[in-house]
Design a protein that fits this description.
The chain folds into two domains: about 5-30 and about 240-440, Enolpyruvate transferase domain (UDP-n-acetylglucosamine1-carboxyvinyl-transferase, Chain, Alpha-beta prism), CATH 3.65.10.10; about 30-230, Enolpyruvate transferase domain (UDP-n-acetylglucosamine1-carboxyvinyl-transferase, Chain). About 30% of the residues lie in helices and about 25% in strands. The protein has helices at about 30-45, 60-70, 105-115, 135-145, 180-190, 205-210, 245-255, 275-280, 320-325, 325-335, 355-365, 395-410, 430-435, and strands at about 5, 15, 20-25, 45-50, 75, 80-85, 100, 120-125, 145-150, 160, 165-170, 170-175, 190-195, 195-200, 215-220, 220-230, 235-240, 260-270, 285-295, 300-305, 315, 340-345, 370-375, 375-380, 390, 415, 435-440. Helix 4 packs parallel to helix 5 (about 180-190), helix 7 runs parallel beside helix 12 (about 395-410) and helix 10 (about 325-335) runs parallel beside helix 12. Bound molecules: shikimate-3-phosphate. The site of shikimate-3-phosphate (S3P) has 12 residues, from helix 1 and helix 5.
Length: about 450
């Protein structure tokens, strides 16, 4: 008999009781980063795009809603999103602010795209998004002659004034390792004279260049990605692979719950997204990747995980951008290890959906783990995750999911408040967890 271990008695709060074992085979929603880009590329390509396995998560849905305000027609047939566009130079003006909701990717990528339009736009978002730094895109977009401004603190709403002439091309080395900044500049480059070059000395997720088919050269250890105004691409026809950042929660859940075995099918294996698997491998995780293939230009495969005894590691430097979204759940894995788990050079975590250094440290301390906070990370001593506590999601989907997983491996019941935040990337998270819990 499977017991109901997650009870949702109070709205927006969940009580998680320790799980005896996890078992099953699951498939996760389409990758969020790929989904944003697929919808944007479909908007820029003249004709009909068909994007299968489009996630019903709030973030990518925010992108689609914004794009439909700009004159793109759309229809959902089950999990397939059909989009019809008149092409790159036929976006339409919308006289109200576009709402990116909680999604930094939506705000930053659309800012790049809209900087080159002949009409003006305002992009706004929720309270958390309006706290996040936007100067990182404003600076290069202004260098391209975009008329873009933010609040005095450098946060949204963003105001973008329309322009008659094309933007100016730039050659820009990223001062922060950010795929969102890289993508915003590349999208603006489609509306600029000459060739725009983005240089990254530390690799970040490469979906934009991969999906657009852009030339990428590597000289002296740096990536040079180029785009220009004449660049055109066909409508999008793809099946979005499962989101590896979501898979990370389930992988760690199976690793730290006794007697577990879990298979995750059709998960993205894009090398810029699965560095967390190598980190877990170094921690002693038993993970087997199989059935690898490459159907739509994005590598994909299945992942089998077994319960494992974990040891602590240090993650730092150029590893960080490639595991940035997985650090909250890696911290939970580290908290069950037999030694120290340390994160350094990760100040960027302070600018995510919440200040993730603060939210992770607070959550772990509430669960009885000794943690020292650094300005750019933290170090914790692995041990026993204690239940009997109430923790908060800080309105952050990844902190919410990491806390629930921690609760499954804790020694008694854990209460997680503001669980609704999971809808930003995985509305069905609790049901999916529930489906793999076996307490008999
Ligand atoms: C994303 C890039 C990352 C990541 C975010 C999604 C993307 O942000 O944290 O969840 O889709 O480009 P940065 O590139 O700003 O680090």
């Amino acid at each position: 008999m499977t017991l109901l271990t997650i009870n949702r008695s109070k709205k927006n709060t969940v009580s998680v009781t320790p799980a005896r074992r996890l078992h099953g085979e699951i498939e996760l929603p389409g990758d969020k980063s790929i989904a944003h880009r697929a919808a944007i590329i479909a908007t820029l390509a003249k004709g009909e795009s068909l994007i299968e396995n489009f996630p019903d998560a709030e973030d990518p849905q925010a992108t689609v809603t914004c794009l439909t305000k700009l004159g793109i027609e759309y229809e959902y047939v089950g999990k397939t999103l059909w989009l019809q566009s008149k092409g790159i130079n036929f976006l339409e003006e919308y006289d109200k602010p576009l709402n990116a909701m909680n999604s930094g990717t939506t705000m930053r990528l659309l800012a790049g795209l809209l900087s080159g339009q002949p009409f003006s736009t305002i992009i706004t978002g929720d309270e958390s998004l309006l706290e996040r730094p936007m100067r990182r895109i404003i600076k290069p977009l202004k260098m391209m002659n975009a008329y873009i401004s933010a609040s005095r603190r450098g946060t949204g709403p963003l105001k973008i004034r329309g322009r008659k002439n094309p933007l100016k091309n730039i050659r820009y080395e990223l001062p922060v390792a950010s795929a969102q900044v890289k993508s915003a500049i590349l999208l603006a480059g489609l509306y600029a004279y000459g060739t725009t070059t983005v240089i990254e000395s530390v690799p970040t997720r490469d979906h934009t260049e991969r999906m657009l088919g852009l030339p990428v050269k590597n000289y002296g250890g740096k990536n040079y990605i180029t785009i220009d105004k004449s660049f055109r691409f066909p409508p999008v026809r793809m099946v979005i692979p499962g989101d590896p950042s979501t898979a990370a929660f389930f992988i760690v859940a199976a690793l730290i719950t006794p007697d577990s075995e879990l298979v995750i099918k059709n998960c993205s294996l894009n090398p810029t997204r699965i560095a967390f698997l190598s980190v877990l491998g170094k921690m002693g995780a038993k993970i087997h990747v199989f059935n690898k293939r490459n159907p739509d230009g994005e590598p994909i495969g299945d992942i089998r995980v077994y319960t494992s005894a974990l040891r602590g590691v240090t993650v730092a430097g150029s590893q960080i951008p490639l595991i940035i979204d997985e650090i909250p759940i890696l911290a939970i894995a580290g908290a069950t290890s037999d030694s120290y788990f340390e994160v350094k050079d990760a100040r960027e975590l302070r600018y995510k959906e919440s200040d993730r250094i603060h939210s992770v440290v607070t959550t772990l301390r509430a669960m009885g783990i000794e943690v020292k906070e650094y300005d750019d990370g933290f170090v914790l001593r692995g041990g026993r995750l204690r239940g009997g506590a109430t923790v908060d999601s800080f309105g952050d989907h990844r902190v919410a999911m990491a806390s629930v997983i921690g609760g499954l491996a804790a020694d008694s019941e854990l209460t997680v408040r503001n669980i609704q935040a999971v809808s930003v990337s995985f509305p069905d998270f609790l049901n999916t967890i529930q489906s793999i819990i076996h307490n008999n």
